[in-house]
Amino acid sequence: MTSAAHDRLLIIDFGSQVTQLIARRLRELNVYCEIHPFNSVTDAFLKDFAPKAVVLSGGPSSVVHENSPRPPASVFECGVPVLGICYGQQVMMQMLGGRVEGGKISGGGGTAEFGRAYVTPSVEKLDLLSGWFQNDEDREQVWMSHGDHVAKLAPGFEVYGTSPNAPYAVTADTDRHFYAVQFHPEVHHTPKGATLYENFVRIAGFQGDWTMGAYREEAIRKIREQVGDKQVICGLSGGVDSSVAAVLIHEAIGDQLTCVFVDHGLLRLNEADEVVAMFRDNYNIPLIHADESELFLGELDGQSDPETKRKIIGKLFIDVFQKYANQIEGAEFLAQGTLYPDVIESVSFSGGPSVTIKSHHNVGGLPEKMGLKLVEPLRELFKDEVRALGRELGLPASFIGRHPFPGPGLAIRCPGEITREKLDILRQADAVYIDQIRRHGLYDEIWQAFAAILPVRTVGVMGDGRTYDFACGLRAVTSVDGMTADYYPFSHEFLSETATRIINEVAGINRVFYDVTSKPPGTIEME
């Protein structure tokens, strides 16, 4: 999607689970960057990509081990600034003539360093650290996560910062604009990490030309070039990603786009009506409302295994979508709301260095029988950038800020067997819970919140009578990107008020629980 006219920064990934955070930090500075696994970065790739700067990520490997990951040597011959982070620092030192010693984890005797640490500066100033070391104690908090350590600097490098267990915490060869830090500036626990990245892109001469306004214009042009006069169908879920993709594509090609909204009967209260009204009435986008709830719920009847339920929903969705797609004459393209994290994780799944968390059904093409080509105008964007693009396109703020909603819908918030009765109870409870969150002004502070109906019945007392009804679980988490999450710390007053409302207003529930599990070890959803 991107044009060579953009300044581009290359992030070479060695398998760190926080590499995406590097990209997010840089995108926040209006710098366009891409993440590529080390084993896909060749001399030819470097020449074609022509980066204005390079960042070497962290990673789980040890450079002292044979066959540990390496970038091509030509990275250091491109004449552009290079920043090495943690493993990236160590691989830089090892390749340029320094020496790294293994810690106990790698079979050596060195001291590891994990968690919060404090870096103190050397006497000489460094442009990369402009804005650092201005507090009374003349030190800055950083986040360390390394078992190995640099024991000898490569020729041309000097020390600019140290920590108790990292004597070479910040090093640089200023003549060649090579910089290396042992800590992780991309994480929240390095408070001035964003300043370090800002200094690096300034040193590299980036103009900050990566904006959603520019992306919108460029994406429209690319969509028109790809599609021509052919028809496009879009699987509209009602979520932010597919909705922004649909509005963007419609702006590019107008009535050549038809959206298919598959209603599987697992949506939240009034959700189908809201989605149809927004796209058919407000945007005048051709829309097929495929109400197939009876089909989905019939196939799910009696099923309780979560993976089985997911597979049933996934297969039916493809079958139903194809049925309606076949009714659209001349359709040659399918639009999907694939995001950049999906692409990154799928690359890792097919051979990249990081540990794969999940694979994605919407990356890498469609079932061959459909015979459609993909249009994925959001595949270079993170979630927050999609929301920014949605604002650029004029989507309502209340819609752009909606919490994520899973493709299988309420099926994964209904552990155990799914019944129409349980779904109706769950919809009502979820609506009360979200209404409570909005009334208290907390909705925008929370990444995702939802109710789940638990697969147990409990004894209760209401109006001097015995009840035997379902238990309701409430979940609310804070997160940056959904990869890790912590529970939202509601007050006891809020939880008490919410539980009372749910029990009083929703027939079929007599007990309410709040989930205080983080991710990891849990997941955000119940199933």
Short précis:
Residues 348-365 have low confidence and may be disordered. Strand 10 (166-173) and strand 11 form a beta hairpin.
Describe the structure.
This protein is α/β, with parallel strands linked by helices. It folds into 3 domains: 8-204, Class I glutamine amidotransferase (GATase) domain (Rossmann fold, 3-Layer(aba) Sandwich); 212-400, Rossmann fold (3-Layer(aba) Sandwich), CATH 3.40.50.620; 413-514, GMP Synthetase, Chain A, domain 3 (2-Layer Sandwich), CATH 3.30.300.10. The chain is built from 14 helices and 20 strands. The strands form 4 sheets. It has a 9-stranded mixed sheet with strand order 2-1-3-4-11-10-9-6-7, sandwiched between helices. Strand 9 and strand 10 (166-173) form a beta hairpin. The longest helix has 20 residues, at 306-325. The chain is globular and about 75 Å long. The model is unreliable at 348-365 (pLDDT under 50).
